[in-house]
Structures
1.
Amino acid sequence: MEPCGRRPASRVAAALALVGLAAGLAACEGPSSPPPAAASPSASPSQGVDATPVPLPPGVSVEVGQARVEWGDRIVRVVVANESAVDVVVAAAQITGPRWATPARSLGSATAAPGGSATVRLLLGAPRCEQPEEADVLTLELDDSASPGSAPRAVLAHGIDASADPDDVLTRRWAEECAAEAVATGARLSWSPRLEVVEVVEVVEGVEGARARLTLWLDPVPGGPLVEVQAIDGTTLLSPVGGPQWALGLSSAAGGPVAATLEATPARCDPHAVAEDKRGAQMPVRATVDGVAQPVFYLPLPEAAREALHAFLGQACGWPAG
């Protein structure tokens, strides 16, 4: 645990706005520090509490991340690390900023004990797809009602910089969702509900006997921009036959529905890794809208196709039945 008044160099150094910080954390500022203003008991992140920027409470830091298993559910995680001497109770949290039309809101509370950490899960809000000019802001609602003489709620607003989001999770999710939104203005993309399994006689990339065929449909949106789908990348479960991606060349210029068939072999055959895979059925799309290349976004296979995919892997890889 770090002494009062010190902050580890690896911790986030961005400015914060704080109202009514818990008395146990404020004590680390020393007797000469002015006491923070008391927060209203009903204060919450959604109320946009006005506050003066102050340093991050000693020993407390935050970091944004995302678990692969929660990618499809649009959930991000905020880890609150606590090297102070008191509990840090996060009653609620949200992420806001100019590139989000609605805030990401927490799905529950969490408590970081001294010397430990806690994870707060947040459901992403709807993106606002213009070029962002400001960083996102994480707002934490701290519950210090158990500390005598302290306010029951404290609101902490924290600018999210590269040190607080080292994997650039928020930017990548925003870019992916805006790319999908831009494509959807000019074309509806969909997979056929099932994949086809075909037998082959030659050995292809170490796998003999079966390939999977998936069909991608592009249906133009009347009056929308020109959409072209150049390629689909391989995934952790599926490898394109003959290269690292499927070259498609689908275009909404056709004026009606068009389709392309993707032929695949297993990308891996270890049953344990396949069983635990979380993104193998999320197909990475490379497209342009009115000639402007979009960030890669993901088009998931439908449920029936995902089930058939696992059956295909078992067949192609020669796993024992059952």
2.
Amino acid sequence: MKKLLLPLFCLILIHCKKSEAHSLNANLVNVAEEDKLIAIDSSAVALKSPVVDASIRFPSEKTISEKTTAISKKIIKNGNLRIQVGDIKKAQDQVSSIVKSNKAYIQKEEFQNNDNEENIDLTIRVPHQNFDALVNSFSDGVGSVLSKNISSDDVTEEYTDVSIKLTNKKIYLEKYRDMLKSAKTTKDILEIQENIRELEDEIDVSEGRLRFIDDRVNYSTLNLSLYKEKVRTSATSKVGFGSRFGDSVTEGWNSFVAFLLGVISLWPFFLLIPVLVFLWRKWRNRKKK
């Protein structure tokens, strides 16, 4: 009886080992399948491989892309306009009226006044749908356009790229937070927390970039310069005769004052004139004798 029990026990032991081997192989296959499902986007923070629950699956890149909604065209319009005017104050009033009627606002204003010109530089933000109307109103009704530069930049590709990466990072962030709940050791907790911190920083940067692009798309920017020349010629001016006549009188007075000041600046030489006259007369008297 003992001889029969010994072989039977050996068979049972071998069978158990085979079952364990099959179970181990099945676990390895499951782990391999889990690894294939992890498709980390190139922009995401590199994983530091902390020991975590293998049941947590990261989303594939295809799944993330499908969740990203379609993005409309993103066009940023900018412009630079320089206008010569006859009266700065009147031009300012016209600009304020045009800005108000187009639902725009003045973001920045700078005023300069020197001997030759008065100049006001304005940075105007206007809803993108009113940009063309605003530019045309300034070009037609304020003064003489000296220069005009309008540009349009298509940032749809950049916006889409940043949006997809942002979606990826938010999904990874949620997964890391789930992993943090199941972490067992202090090392794993610290590594996961560091990954979470880095992802949160990158998410803040991406969201800030998207807000900036949206602001530039929704509100176009126009840099307007109002220019009043104090000393003009008829060849460079297109304003009325009365204004040009006044400028001519001012120019003549300025020229006279400049001449007078130039003469006064020669006063040291005037002191030498009596000396030169005295020496000349003395030399002439000697020559006569």
